[in-house]
Design a protein that fits this description.
The chain has 14 helices and 67 strands. With 942 residues, the chain is of the alpha+beta class. Pfam families: HTH_18, Reg_prop, Y_Y_Y.
């Protein structure tokens, strides 16, 4: 009777508070200037048909893709105040329109520039934009403009263009689109789209600015108007009457919108955001700034508000940037039994799920929940000696709780009493020891893995048997896992190895494992699937599988990029997928990983870290997992449905050498590519997970976490196809093909080949004709010709000898009067090196040999002899060696980190970038860029 009364009371509380109890949890992320935002004042928010979110700030238009912000500037506008974006919208032809303090703008998507539209007609503030197909209604400081079929029509509510009623702040259409409603600073107006008739209504309140309507929205036959001093006012279209709505704690309304059915979304300049129920006329949800709430909105001064098509809330602040609620698709849920229990943010180490009855162990204690009776009870210290629960097992009508450092306790679900396990004889162990696992077998025994061996307990026979490494083949150390397979055989894993319990002989055997098995490894979890294959999760190493008879076994790759030590638990669903929980995410795989899926925060997984062995499939096929941020569950049958709703990935930018491009055919030196993309998840950036492949470079798909761009450097000429997708999800795949053209195009090579062939043909033709003439001439002519030829060859040979002797003589003559002795060369070389290293004259790009000779008090001829004859080096090679050495010193000095390569080269004395690159390559064998990368730096180009 008491339980029934308690349950009824809870039911009444739940029904009364149901709206709040079932309300969606919102976690907000803040975007500010350090994240790329152009300003902290966000005055307009719009989400386009592709999925980008556009933000109007005080001086710029920003595009946000969930990670990065791209800026679109208003060129030619000097006044900062006039740059403030008032409104953003998109027409049916995917044209993006923007209104600011100086007029109307449109985004040219081809060149990424904002272009001014009809400045000769609209050279004043545009406050609101309303699209209807290809028609655009424009509300300005000086009346209404309608753009249709390339024509622009102006409509005035008063003949005096400067009248306050012509200052239109917001617009909306009625249900049948026959009339346009105009919110102005001096009343509400309707404009008939059929006959052009204009009617007006005024909010008759004896207060200042009572008629100042700032924003407008409609649900059915009711208009909701945001005012500057009277809060939100309703207007009944049928009755043509105004009325007040509920108080929101602030009467300055900055933005208002609705879902068109039930909920009005209201932003206030002073008291946050409010969701107003159209039917109940009550606030159903509010978001206000709370300094203690790190996941709430950052300010109560709201300037813009958007609730998008997925229910995410976007909040633009006065001086706090942008807040948006992190999106989750709801595939995974965190278990809660409201209002009495919520596992969110609890680190779940173990649990037992028996339908309506659940026992959950965490790092903060033990929880018992009975949904049938409405009973919820928690057990913490000092009732629990240790509140770190390692294992829970239901056995013979009671729950056996194993703890770390607090022994084992028994929970009676009828009396909810908790007492120590006192049947083991070893009181010290079961009250203060470590209990790692508790498992029942088919014969009614309870097996207990502890820090002091293995126990087998039979409640009916009131017997307990203790196995140790001294009295059995149990490997030494803590007993971490006990698992009984479908044949009744027990697999026991300890800190130093494994053994098998043979039910026939009732003994432990460790000498039955074949060579190459994992019986010497530290195994933490053992699982048998429906195909009777065993899976072993080791503390270090990949997933290991084996048949029950151990005649076939092997290491199995779960995911090519998954660390071997990251596996935590494993469970199979009813569709044949194997779910693997890790310490950095959750996967499902099938057919040796050929089919796979990865699940993140965007799927509802609250945290990436899962706990060891905490995975379970219930009678309905629902999968349950212990996570460091709660007990979560998922219906595997919904995965394909949710995955089918995923937006295809979109490329947000593609860069060549750091510069955006649109033509996919690139020059040979535009070979450093960066691909930027987004899936419009708008969740945690740290939870982003993609896989990508550049065909021709990457052999397999590569995993990318917490990033949305990939770069490749030094690509050779050729055609490349870049692919990116959500892991295992072909439907989300985006493809981009780019060609890096060769330095010499194909037609260049063709011309070269033709030229060579032509030269060879000409030579062959000439030689053939000459030979033919020789063969057809008389013998005397041949004799004379041969003699002449020999005389000619002899003359040429003599000329070459004379030329060579002349060259040598010239060199000898040059230094004849300036020849230096060995000692003089050594002395001059010493003076030269000392002067160059101390005075650094080489930093002067105009340094001449004569200048250097004068500084050394010697002649240019002597210095030339030293360099060319003694050092076997030209003057420029000698000087450039010092300049290259100086560059190497400067490039590792943080003082010069902001300088470009060209600037550094000039500081070192090089007169041009080309001579610098040539000298550097000649001296070091590598280019400056390659040298900087080899020392771990990044070259700063022009």
């Amino acid at each position: 009777m008491k339980n029934t009364i308690k349950y009824l009371i809870l039911l009444i509380i739940y029904l009364v508070c149901g709206v709040n109890l079932q309300a969606q949890n919102y976690t907000f992320r803040n975007v500010v200037m350090s994240d790329g935002l152009s300003g902290l004042l966000v005055n307009a928010i719009y989400k386009d048909s592709e999925g980008f979110v556009w933000l109007g700030t005080d001086n710029c238009l920003d595009r946000f893709d969930g990670v990065k912000v791209r800026h679109y500037e208003f060129r030619g506008v000097d006044s900062g105040r006039k740059k403030r974006v008032n409104c953003i919208t998109e027409t049916a032809d995917n044209q993006l329109w923007v209104g600011n303090g100086i007029g109307l703008w449109r985004l040219n998507r081809a060149n990424g520039q904002l272009e001014r539209i009809v400045p000769e007609k609209i050279d004043f503030a545009v406050n609101t934009l309303l699209p209807d197909g290809d028609i655009l209604y424009i509300g300005t400081e000086k009346g209404l403009f309608i753009q249709k079929d390339g024509q622009l029509l102006q409509v005035l509510t008063d003949r005096n263009m400067l009248a306050a009623c012509n200052r239109i702040m917001d617009l909306c259409l009625n249900e049948d689109k026959s009339a346009l409603w105009l919110a102005t600073v001096q009343g509400l107006f309707s404009y008939s789209l059929k006959d052009g008739k204009i009617d007006s209504w005024h909010f008759q309140e004896n207060v200042p600015e009572a008629d100042y309507f700032r924003c407008l929205t409609r649900i059915g036959e009711t208009l909701y108007l945001g005012t500057m001093s009277q809060g939100v006012v309703r207007f009944d279209i049928n009755k043509k009457s105004f009325s007040h709505t509920v108080s929101l704690g602030c009467d300055v309304i900055s933005d208002i919108s609705s879902d068109g059915k039930e909920t009005v979304y209201i932003a206030t300049d002073g008291n946050g955001v409010h969701f107003l129920s159209h039917k109940a006329q009550q606030v159903a949800r509010r978001f206000c700034h709370d300094v203690s709430d790190k996941e709430g909105i950052r300010s109560n001064s709201i300037y813009s508000l958007l609730v998008d098509d997925r229910g995410a809330v976007w909040v633009g602040h006065f001086q706090a940037g942008l807040d948006y609620s992190l999106y989750q698709n709801g595939l995974f849920q965190t278990y809660a039994y409201p209002p009495l229990f919520n596992s969110a943010n609890l680190s779940i180490r173990s649990f037992v799920n028996r339908g309506h009855e659940k026992v959950i162990g965490s790092r903060d204690g033990l929880y018992y929940i009975n949904e049938a009776t409405g009973v919820v009870k928690s057990f913490v210290k000092p009732v629990l000696t240790s509140d770190l629960i390692l294992t829970i097992c239901f056995y013979e009508g009671e729950y056996y709780i194993g703890t770390y450092g607090g022994g084992m306790m028994v929970l009676n679900p009828e009396t909810l009493s908790l007492e120590y396990f006192a049947r083991g004889g070893d009181t010290e162990l079961f009250q203060k020891g470590h209990i790692f696992c508790v498992r029942p077998d088919e014969k009614g025994n309870l097996w207990i893995g502890t820090s002091q061996g293995l126990f087998c307990y039979n409640k009916q026979a009131k017997q307990i048997k203790h196995f140790t490494s001294a009295n059995s083949q149990l490997p030494e150390g803590n007993v971490y896992e006990v698992s009984f397979d479908s044949t009744g055989k027990g697999w026991i894993a300890t800190e130093t190895g494994m053994c098998i319990y043979d039910p026939a002989s009732q003994s432990l055997r460790s000498n039955v494992f074949p060579e190459g098995f994992v019986h010497r490894d530290k195994v933490r979890t053992i699982y048998e699937d429906t195909g009777h294959d065993l899976y072993f999760i080791r503390e270090k190493g990949s997933l290991f599988t084996s048949t029950l008879t151990m005649d076939r076994f092997r290491n199995r790759s779960v995911f090519s990029t998954l660390p071997d030590n990251s596996l935590m638990s494993i469970v199979e669903d009813n569709q044949g997928w194997l779910w693997v929980a890790c310490n950095d995410g959750l996967l499902r795989i099938k057919e040796e990983g050929e089919e796979y899926d990865a699940f993140t925060f965007n799927d509802g997984v609250p945290g990436p870290t899962f706990t060891n062995g905490a995975a379970y499939k219930d009678e309905k096929g629902i999968l349950w997992f212990g996570n460091t941020k709660g007990l979560i569950y998922v219906d595997p049958k919904r995965v394909d449905e949710v995955r089918g709703k995923v937006r295809p990935i979109v490329f947000t930018d593609i860069l060549a050498n750091g510069i955006s491009f649109t033509n996919p055919s690139l020059k040979y030196n535009q070979n450093n590519l960066t691909f930027c993309f987004t899936d419009f998840a708008y969740g945690l950036p740290s939870a982003l997970l993609y896989e990508y492949q550049l065909e021709g470079v990457d052999k397999d798909w590569k995993l990318l976490a917490a990033q949305n761009e990939v770069s490749y450097y030094g690509l050779s000429s050729g055609t490349y196809t870049f692919r990116v997708r959500l892991p295992g999800n072909e439907q989300s795949e985006a493809v981009y093909q780019v060609t890096v053209r060769p330095m010499i195009p194909w037609w260049g090579w063709a011309l070269s080949v033709l030229l060579i062939v032509g030269i060879i043909a000409f030579i062959r033709y000439y030689v053939w004709n000459r030979m033919r003439r020789l063969l057809t001439s008389p013998a005397s002519a041949i004799s004379v010709s041969v003699e002449k030829t020999q005389q000619k060859d002899q003359t040429i040979e003599q000329a070459e000898v004379i030329s060579e002797e002349s060259s040598i003589a010239t060199t000898e003559e040059k230094y004849k009067t300036n020849r230096l002795t060995e000692e003089e060369c050594k002395e001059l070389h010493k003076k030269l090196v000392a002067y160059v290293e101390k005075e650094k004259p080489y930093i002067n790009p105009d340094l001449k040999m004569g200048d250097l000779a004068s500084a050394l008090d010697t002649s240019s001829h002597s210095l030339s002899y030293l360099l060319n004859q003694y050092l076997n080096q030209s003057y420029y090679d000698f000087i450039n060696e010092y300049r290259v050495t100086q560059f190497k010193k400067m490039v590792v000095d943080s003082q010069y980190s902001r300088y470009t390569l060209t600037a550094l080269a000039e500081l070192c004395g090089f007169s041009s970038r080309a001579s610098f690159f040539r000298s550097f390559k000649k001296s070091t064998g590598v280019t400056p860029n390659e040298y900087i990368r080899s020392i771990g730096g990044t070259a700063k180009e022009e």
